[in-house]
């Protein structure tokens, strides 16, 4: 399995794009502005999209994807998410006001979009790959995602979250986890902002990493623009004994 980082920034500007990962060539994890880096031929291949939560920086590319390729597809794009997340997308995005409801276009019988609820802990299997929502702690209903080939430890993406005992327990229950992509959005001096918006800051992530039993490679995502170096410097100072690296747009992780 291969994961390509289309976007991993906590904002935009100067080549930065928001969260979107391409799994192999047919699945997206989140659909932020990173999706705009794909050429049209790659967009046509996307059949499934897993959404961690409904904040704009993680979903803004989804309506544009459907608008671009819907008429050229023979089957709808399937969006998988927690039921609460799909409810938000239904009421506030695909509602005919902010954007057309592609679940009804061109018809209810033959739509360009379909929703598929996926509960915490439930596994969806696609061509020998498994996708499983994990608990997260954010200001809206949210989850992380565990990706794996059948029987493998694979990769976990935290989504947007602050400290979560349930998330730590879920990660610790995965034997031989190889990669952990986890967010840290603010530096320590902005910890009050991080706490209010339920994101990690270096000290909070360091405390969480101390609870991990395994030794996966740690990749840091969702760094706020302009603060990337300061956040990473603070992280390295408080995570002695663990290697933490900033995730990079265009990076490919194979597992």
Query: How many strand elements?
Result: 14
Please give the largest β-sheet. 7 strands, mixed
Helix and strand element order: EEEHEHHEHEEEEEHEHHEHEE
The computed structural class is alpha/beta
Overall pLDDT level: 97
β-strand percent reads 15-25%
Question: How much helicity do the residues have?
Answer: 10-25%
Shape estimate:
globular
3D architecture notes:
By secondary structure, this protein is of the alpha/beta class. It has one domain (2-248): Metallo-beta-lactamase, Chain A (4-Layer Sandwich). It is built from 8 helices and 14 strands. The chain has helices spanning 40-44, 56-59, 61-69, 83-92, 165-172, 191-197, 202-209, 228-238, and strands spanning 2-7, 20-23, 27-29, 48-50, 77-81, 113-117, 124-126, 129-135, 143-149, 155-157, 179-183, 217-221, 244-246, 252-254. The strands form 2 sheets. The chain has a 7-stranded mixed β-sheet. The N and C termini lie close together (5 Å).
Secondary-structure map with pairings?
Elements lengths: L1 E6 L12 E4 L3 E3 L10 H5 L3 E3 L5 H4 L1 H9 L7 E5 L1 H10 L20 E5 L6 E3 L2 E7 L7 E7 L5 E3 L7 H8 L6 E5 L7 H7 L4 H8 L7 E5 L6 H11 L5 E3 L5 E3 L1
Helix pairs in contact: 7-8
How would you sum up this structure in a few lines?
With 255 residues, this protein is of the alpha/beta class. The chain is built from 8 helices and 14 strands. The model has no long low-confidence stretch (mean pLDDT 97).
